[in-house]
Amino acid sequence: MKILILGGSGGLSGTLARMALKQGKEVWTVTRGKRSLPEGVHPITVDRNEEEAFAKALNDCQMRWDAVFDCICMTPEHGRQDLELLPQVTDRLIVVSTDSVYDPDHKKVPQDENGEAYVHDSSYAGLKRQMEEVFLAAQDSRLNWTLFRPGHIYGPGFLIGCSPEHSRQKDLLEHICADRPLRLVGGGKYLTQPTFAEDLAESMLDCMDKEKTFHEIFCIGGPKAVENRVYYELIGKITGHPVTIEEIPLEGYAQAHPEFSGHLCERSYTLEKLKNAGVKLPSTPLEEGLRRHIEWLEHE
């Protein structure tokens, strides 16, 4: 089986490439060639934002892939590009969106795929929602697309940390091991449902032949939602340095830091739709996944 990954050097796309290779698939990747790639992939070096060069690079491969995985579909222009170019090289497309598309002021607990309101601005979340809308308007496309909305992704390949002021913090382990307190908004009270990167990659690969996933969007998250503070407390347990949490008052924080709006809400999701489509659900317990994540960070 032959697959193409748009991306391949990132935390999720690299994990996806390695897992696909382990399953015996032949893997091509599209990157700008600025970072190393998993050993064994066929690299295609081109910037997807250079549309003519991107189209030519795909055409020059003279390939038809069993599936394409777009891990770098960030804008409505990227969505339109996928719908225009990819039917020439595949019938199947799996795209990574984000749970940040939901308007944080109108989320349910747990949230399903049918949000009451979405983000509509020029932010990362807003552009991702506009990208989703491009696909939703193409229900009759002969390209069988599926979109995933992961929340916090963690595991080897990623920086660690899921909440302001300690989100994707490069020196978080050093911070905790130095017994310095963590400053968490609201004391870390909001729910989060982290997804181990390998689990997400496995679900994406597993959905390839599932017809119930065609032209559908799915929430995806780990097996359990926990408060943000628990995520950090588990890191403290694993490292042997129990954490001390200092509460940052909620009042006025979101207004002062709109870039964190997607974090300042409950991030708990029902996976019933994904389960009913027959897709393998994420199963790695948070403590086990964080332990593997920390081992990788310490090795790096």
Give a brief outline of the structure:
With 300 residues, the chain is an alpha/beta fold. The chain has 10 helices and 15 strands.
Q: What structural class do helix, strand and pairing data support?
A: alpha/beta
- Counted beta strands: 15
Physical arrangement of strands within the biggest beta sheet: 3-2-1-4-5-6-13
Shape estimate:
globular
Total helical elements = 10
What is the average per-residue confidence, as pLDDT, rounded to a whole number?
Answer: 96
Q: Could you name the ranges where pLDDT drops below 50 across 5 or more consecutive residues?
A: none
Helix content: 25-40%
Give the H and E element order: EHEEHEHEHEEEEHEEEHEEHEHHH
For the report, how would you describe the main beta sheet? Answer: 7 strands, parallel
User: How far do the termini sit from each other?
Assistant: 32 Å
Name the beta content range.
15-25%
Radius of gyration: 19 Å
Folded structure, characterized:
It is built from ten helices and 15 strands. The chain has 300 residues and is α/β, with parallel strands linked by helices. A seven-stranded parallel sheet has the order 3-2-1-4-5-6-13, with helices on both faces. A two-stranded parallel ribbon has the order 7-12. Strands 8-9 form a two-stranded antiparallel sheet. α1 packs across α6 (197-206) and α7 packs across α10 (286-299). It is globular. The chain starts with a strand and ends with a helix. The mean pLDDT is 96.
Question: What are the SSEs and their pairings?
Answer:
Layout: E1 2-6, H1 11-22, E2 26-31, E3 42-45, H2 51-61, E4 67-70, H3 76-85, E5 92-96, H4 124-136, E6 144-150, E7 153-154, E8 160-163, E9 166-169, H5 172-177, E10 182-185, E11 191-192, E12 195-196, H6 197-206, E13 216-220, E14 226-227, H7 228-239, E15 245-248, H8 253-256, H9 272-276, H10 286-299
Parallel strand pairs: 1-2, 1-4, 2-3, 4-5, 5-6, 6-13, 7-12, 10-15
Antiparallel strand pairs: 8-9, 11-14
Helix pairs in contact: 1-6, 3-4, 7-10
